[in-house]
User: Fold this.
Amino acid sequence: MLKKIFLFLLLLVLAVGTFAGYEFWRWQSSPVVMATDKVDVRIPRGSSVKDVADILEKNGVKTNPLIFTLYARYTGQASQLKAGAYELKKGQTGMDILSMIANGEVSRRSILFVEGWTYKQIRQAVANHPDIQQTLSEQDESTLMKTLGVPSEYSSLEGLLFPDTYVFAPGDRDIDILRQAYEAGTKRLMAHWNSRSEGLPLKSPYEALILASIVEKETGHGEDRARVAGVFVNRLKIKMPLQTDPTVIYGMGDKYQGKIRKVDLQTDTPWNTYTRNGLPPTPIASPGELALKATLHPEEHKFLYFVARGDGTSEFAENLTQHNRNVQQYILKKGQP
Assistant:
C-alpha cells in the first residue's frame, strides 16, 4: 500500500512539474492578452512585484500574476522595478513587460510651445493635452506665479515660459511642465543678458525680454532679426515711439479680429506703442532663442524704419522719406515696383 502511495505521489509531482513547466514556457513565449493594442500603466513609487502584477491585471494586461511574481523574485528583478509610466503594446510577453519595468523603460510624450505663443496659448495647449494630469484648472495666473516662484516685480507670466519641446511621462502634472518652461526661460534669458552687447538702452533682463517678444512677433526671417532689433534699439535711444503693430494687437485682446484699423492704432492701451513711448509693461509673447540673441546682440546701423516686403523679409530705411517710398512700393502697390 505504501508503495502505491509513493508511486502516486511521484507521478503527481512529475505531472505538476510538467504542467508548471508548460505554463512557464507558454508564459515566456506567448504574447499576453491585452484589452487594446496599447495600454498605458503607471507604477507608483515603492510598488512591490505583487503590486505591479495587480496593477497590470487591473489595466487589462493578463500576465499570470503568480508566474510573473515568482519569476521576478527568482531572477532578482523584483528588487529592480522602477516607478513611472509605461506604454505596453500588443505582442509583448510577460517576460518582456517584466524586463521593461525592471529596466525603467518608461514611456515618453512631448508637448511643443511655439515661438511667439502667448501665455494664454501655452496654458491652453497644456490643458488640451490628453496625457498631462490637470491640476491648475482652478488656479489663476497670480497664484501660479507664486507657485513657480516668479519674482514679485513681474506682473505677468507672459513671455516667461520658454518656447520649446518638452518631454514628459504620461500622467505628469501640468505644473511640472510649466515649471520646466519657466526655468528654461529664466536660464536662457540670463545667459543672453550676461553676454549682451554694450550700450543697450535696456535696464534689466525683463526689459530685454519685453523687447525680444516684440522682435519675435515682428519677424521670423533669420537674417532680419538682429536688424529689426537694431531698429528698436535705435528708437529707444532717441526716445522715439516704437510704433509696432504686434503690441497694439496684444493690447486689443479679444477685440482683435485679424485686422488692425487706424482707430485701433489711436486707441490707447498700456501696450499701444503708437500712443505711448518706450517699452510696453510686459512681453507680448514668448520669444525663442534666436529672438533673445538678436535683441541682446542687435545689428549696429542707422535704420529707424522697416516695412514687410510680403515674402517674410523686410525693407529698412534711415529716414521717413525713404520709409514712405518703401511703404508705397511694398504696401500700397502690393510689392509691385
